Amino acid sequence: MSNKFEGQIKEAVIDLETYALTPNAHILSIGAACMHDPSITFYTNVIIEGQNRAIDEGTLKWWHDQDTEVAQTALDQTNAVPLEQALVDLDTFWSMNGLTNAWGHGATFDISILEDAYRQHGLKPPWQFWAVRDTRTLIDFCKRVATISMEPSFVGDRHNALHDAQHEAKWMNNILNLFKQ
What we know:
It is a single chain. The protein is α/β, with parallel strands linked by helices. It has one domain: Ribonuclease H-like superfamily/Ribonuclease H (Nucleotidyltransferase, domain 5, 2-Layer Sandwich), CATH 3.30.420. It has six helices and five strands; from the N terminus they run βββαααβαβαα. The protein has helices at about 55-65, 70-75, 85-95, 110-120, 135-145, 160-180, and strands at about 10-20, 25-35, 40-45, 100-105, 130-135. α5 (about 135-145) crosses α6 (about 160-180).
């Protein structure tokens, strides 16, 4: 039996919810969705206490101003794990799915924050530095060249790391498929 994804680049979009905007940002949750199949996902909330990472007042205020349900999802500590465990779990997800390229929504946000967290814990990110991709650049390119956005309808809640990652994975697939024609 052949794998329907055989021969495809297996890559994932990663989205974070954080308490800051810098590479050493405090991480609230991590979501990832495989681009070859956005139903293959990873999600975890991270224990808020003891991360020793940056928190900025503007981002705290921003979270305070968000819809209560959205903020509760990002801040939920019920099944949260320590940051180091979240990184190990992401690494396991990455390996189990044979992923290569890591996509983030912005060249200096999600992936940079995760790479800083991996370094903080003496761990190596599961992707190679040359396999990092940026969704915003591809979206901008598509709008300029094709004069369309190809953005799918959003399903779920914005600022939920998993829902954002799935949305961005579908969006990247729409754009990449446009250029395959």
